[in-house]
Design a protein that fits this description.
Layout lengths: L10 H14 L6 H11 L7 H12 L6 H13 L16 E2 L3 H11 L7 E2 L14 H6 L8 H13 L6 E10 L3 E2 L1 H7 L12 E8 L2 E6 L8 H12 L4 E6 L3 E3 L9 H11 L9 H11 L1 H4 L5 E5 L8 H14 L2 E6 L12 H6 L5 E4 L3 H13 L8
Parallel strand pairs: 1-2, 6-7, 6-9, 9-10, 10-11
Antiparallel strand pairs: 3-5, 4-5, 7-8
Helix pairs in contact: 1-2, 2-3, 7-9, 11-13
């Protein structure tokens, strides 16, 4: 609201807590960004709410798609400090945030908000007399193959807003640090400024980087009802992480460059025009053979994680599929197979292709609904920085 005043008191503790809320919502915050935010507040009128919002957004928001999350978090966090509104009242803005249930409950208690004031991004108001699940929660548990057109549009919105974070790897490069191993080069470079005596030691530590991710998606006829949503899933992940994406039916096609467009509809339509065998037969073994032969050396460096998304129905040679899956597993940091049929209680991996590939897979996970994809995201974020046991 233009002209609304805002009382911050001592800003540093509050900024640190606000940065924690943003981090829980999927934004990237660091101690340095908190310091930068405090400096930004020193350059503006902290009594003006809009100035404070703009100053903090300039520090914490690094992508356009993070703006809505930042605005909602700002309104929730600072609303109970405003003298003109009751506790937790948020004027004219949505209060939805991408928080898991435990984090949402913890922040409600920490900020002193009623249960209705801080909710997850996928929550909705539960009608009286219902089974206790909101419409959005039921949608998250609904199988992709059973969704109506309206439900698919809502699922698409939730997929685009879902925060994804991959596990990190230790790089060979080092960066300056207050403690750690002694950096002799920087120590000796400082020595002339200390009278020629290197009595102040410089330290460094190993740098951490996000692991690259490789998605190999099945777009054959048996995956027809879910293929567009899975391409949307690949587009959503690729906006936040370093991702190489391939699709296959009877042959393998690299589509990473097609999904880099910001406009998701244009990206998916362009992909549909370029991939001519969408909805065709399935040759998983031959597709993986081409990946191993033509692309593996280029995209599997730096400890890449490979995710194959397929129902396992295959018309090719199962011996080829088993051999190429084993080869792919040896080349990758971890091989994860997602199956949209796995969410069914009666499903058994009895298809010839799935049975041949399964012994060579590190993780076999469901991908039948939004909740399953969220679980995949949590699994990827929780993988150890060290080599996991196989």
């Amino acid at each position: 609201m233009p002209g609304t005043t805002l009382s911050l008191g001592d800003p540093l503790p509050r900024l640190a807590m606000f940065a924690r809320l943003l981090r829980d919502c999927g934004l990237r915050t660091t101690p340095q960004s908190v310091i930068d935010a405090a400096r930004a507040l020193g350059c503006i009128d902290v009594g003006r709410r809009d100035d404070v919002r703009a100053g903090l957004a300039a520090v914490f928001v690094t992508r356009r798609e993070e703006t809505l999350v930042f605005d909602a978090a700002f309104d929730i966090f600072f609303s109970h400090h405003e003298p003109r509104h009751t506790a937790g009242a948020i004027p004219q803005r949505s209060r939805a945030l991408p928080l898991d249930p435990a984090a949402a409950a913890a922040w409600r208690e920490l900020l002193g908000l009623p249960a209705s004031q801080l909710r997850r991004e996928d929550e909705d108001t539960t009608p009286s007399g219902s089974s206790g699940y909101s419409a959005a929660e039921l949608l998250r548990q609904r199988d992709f193959r059973e969704m109506t057109a309206d439900e698919q549009r809502e699922a698409r919105r939730l997929l685009l807003q879902a925060p994804w974070r991959l596990t990190q790897r230790r790089s060979r490069r080092h960066q300056p640090a207050p403690r750690g191993s002694v950096d002799l080069r920087r120590t000796l470079r400082r020595a002339p400024r200390q009278g020629g005596e290197p009595f102040l030691l410089a330290h460094s530590r190993r740098r951490y980087r996000r692991r690259p991710l490789v998605l190999i998606l099945d777009v054959s006829g048996s995956m027809d009802k879910v293929s567009r949503l899975l391409l949307l899933f690949a587009h959503a992940v690729g906006r936040r992480e370093r991702v190489e994406t391939f699709v296959f039916s009877t042959r393998l096609t690299r589509i990473s460059h097609l999904l880099r467009r910001r406009d998701v509809d244009a990206a998916l339509d362009h992909t549909a025009r370029q991939v001519h065998d969408i909805g065709g037969g399935t040759r998983i073994g031959e597709s993986l053979r081409r990946f191993n032969r033509d692309y593996a050396r280029r995209v599997l460096g730096h400890g890449a994680i490979v995710v194959v998304l397929s129902d396992g129905w295959d018309r090719g040679d199962v011996d080829v599929l088993a051999a190429e899956t084993a080869r792919l597993r040896r080349s990758s940091r971890r091989l994860i197979w997602l199956n949209p049929l796995l969410g069914s209680a009666s499903y058994q991996p009895e298809a010839r292709g799935m049975a041949a590939a399964l012994p060579h897979v590190d993780d076999f996970l469901a991908a039948n609904n939004l909740e399953a994809l969220d679980e995949v995201g949590r699994h990827l974020a929780a993988l150890s920085a060290r080599t996991p046991p196989r």
